[in-house]
Amino acid sequence: MYSIAKIIPEKIFRKILRKIINIAFNLLKKEKKIAYKNLEVINPSLNKEEKDKIYRKFTNVFSEILSDQILFSKYDKEDLISKIEVIGYERIKEYFNYKKGIILVVGHLGNWEIFGVHACLNGFPINCLYRPLDNKLLDKYLNKSRTMYGVKLISKFSSPLNMIRPLMNNEALVFLADQNTIKNYLYVPFFGKIASASRGFSFFHLKTNAPVVFAYSYIDDDLKQYGIFEECFDFVNLYNKLSIKEKHFLNYFNLTFNSRSSKEIYQENLNNFKKFYSIEDRFKLNEQELAENELEKFKDKIKNYNELSFDEKSFYITYFFHQALEKVIFKYPESWLLVHPRFNKQPEGFPKFYNFKK
Questions:
Q1: pLDDT attached to residue 140
Q2: Domain positions in the chain
Q3: pLDDT at residue 289, rounded to an integer
């Protein structure tokens, strides 16, 4: 592909690649089924035509990202600066004044690779945690483009000291935190379903008190690229704003799915959770009268944020990130990595989420 990209005009190359990607993703039946299942979760009201439309847009977005990776070595700094419009750099400058570093939590949204390079070119020290690819040649190729303009990479398999050092040096530490996680995970509610999530960024925030900023990228219908830095999370305020019903739900969710308890206690907690909330129907409240009586009793058990344990705080911090992520994905579903099996890992005893018949 790179050889072809060198000898034909960029616009023609992008059009050709877009057609190839569109055909490929329609032939990849499993990935397409995963994408449509994810769209059902994101917005249950979508009909077949709407899903088809979003999926076509997704293939265009994916093609645009892949084109940029293939063509990256052809770009100079001016090309990359003009590639994406970014909002929120003034916030990042302010947060660096705290001298605690910044934790950036991002998802597989839009062109996160170009977004990171753009931030570096604007003078921000970016350190990204990443998983080295099994294919060493491809890993080397991608890392060369990723680090060409100052982005630093830290393997997720390296020591915690290497990860915390950027914060100690008042730099940004980036976590790609929206993946299905099978190690060092916790479960959070996400689009009314159960999803495993990394506890990594919450750990570093709680250990360092570095501000946590949600950053995301998206690509619009005209294939224009945008990057957004939100205001840093105020986890204490977010927790305090939760209603009694929300705290009851989250407390029982965390107690049920994240407690390191025996099978017997887990089953007891699960049965108790199901008594109040429907797992099949996006955690809809069951038995209203019983739930209201339960809420009255629960009021006296509510903790202040500072009274929460380390693990409880980690759960709520991860939950608030996923709430922010939900809003963006709902608005720009085609810019999310729809073919990722986000809900693959489920609690013990739960059926496979992507259980497709052959």
A1: 81
A2: 2-238+313-335, 239-305
A3: 64
